[in-house]
Amino acid sequence: MKTKLKKLYEGKAKIIYQKNIKEVHAYYKNDATAFNNLKKGSIKDKGKINNAICSYLYEILNNADIPTHFIKKIDKNTQLLEKVDIVPIEVLVRNYFAGSLSEKFGIKEGTKIPDALIEYCLKSDELGDPHISPEHIFTLNLCDPETLELIDDYSLRVNDILRSVFYTVGLKLIDFKLEFGISKKSNELVLADEISPDTCRLWDLKTNEKLDKDRFRRDLGGVEEAYLEVMNRLGLKI
């Protein structure tokens, strides 16, 4: 960061700085974590790569009338964002069986799901982000039914857009994670956090080669190269 701003929060992948009461800077780090922070490492230039990819995808979503917290990319590692109060729910959108879903039901990774499947997790590192149902969400007062309905609607629309974007560059969107928040500017629900190879499973359409964080999780090697490949296919530079 070139200017001295107050640090609000440091997460596993980003540092959030206060710009004013309604805006923040998000600085993308090179740190890599998996399994709820049990596995830690670093990926060369990950911050710059993920910032480039996420900024590009958020611009597409903004132009498609999906409300997001993204305002603009400031520099190679930093974005300007609307400040939000995060809804403590992680939304998992799945197009294919993979990861924990594949393990849970004993279905081969890469098996197509007929219609996009939405799952929810409680956003809590301490509890290991446990899966929760809509009934849990309402019982715990995490959000109301109308907000959850809107979250589902936005999530499916984002899925349609991202699947198309990645398909055109030879990538299959297996699944991804989304977060939402209430904007301090508009007081409305907006898409928040990031969309990148950290939060998406992306496979090559022809070879099914994994080009995402699973390369780090599973010690497959070539992690930086995979992230760079996604960025390059999207026609982006750092």
Average residue pLDDT: 95
In percent, how much strand structure appears in the residues? 25-35%
Radius of gyration: 17 Å
How far from one another are the termini? 17 Å
Summed up:
Helix content is about 30%, strand content about 35%. With about 240 residues, the chain is α+β, with helices and mostly antiparallel strands. β10 and β11 (about 130) form a beta hairpin.
Topology:
Elements: E1 6-10, E2 14-20, E3 23-28, E4 31-34, E5 39-42, H1 46-63, E6 70-73, E7 78-82, E8 84-86, E9 89-96, H2 99-105, E10 112-122, E11 131-132, H3 134-139, H4 145-167, E12 171-183, E13 189-192, E14 200-204, H5 214-217, H6 223-233
Antiparallel strand pairs: 1-2, 2-3, 3-7, 4-5, 6-7, 8-12, 9-10, 9-12, 10-11, 12-13, 12-14
Helix pairs in contact: 1-6
Task: Please tell me about this protein's structure.
The chain has 238 residues and is an alpha+beta fold. Helix content is 29%, strand content 34%. It has six helices and 14 strands. Strands 8, 9, 10, 11, 12, 13 and 14 form a seven-stranded antiparallel beta sheet that branches. A five-stranded antiparallel beta sheet has the order 1-2-3-7-6, covered by helices on one side. Strand 1 (6-10) and strand 2 form a beta hairpin. Helix 1 (46-63) runs parallel beside helix 6. The protein is globular, with a radius of gyration of 17 Å. The two termini are 17 Å apart. The model has no long low-confidence stretch (mean pLDDT 95).
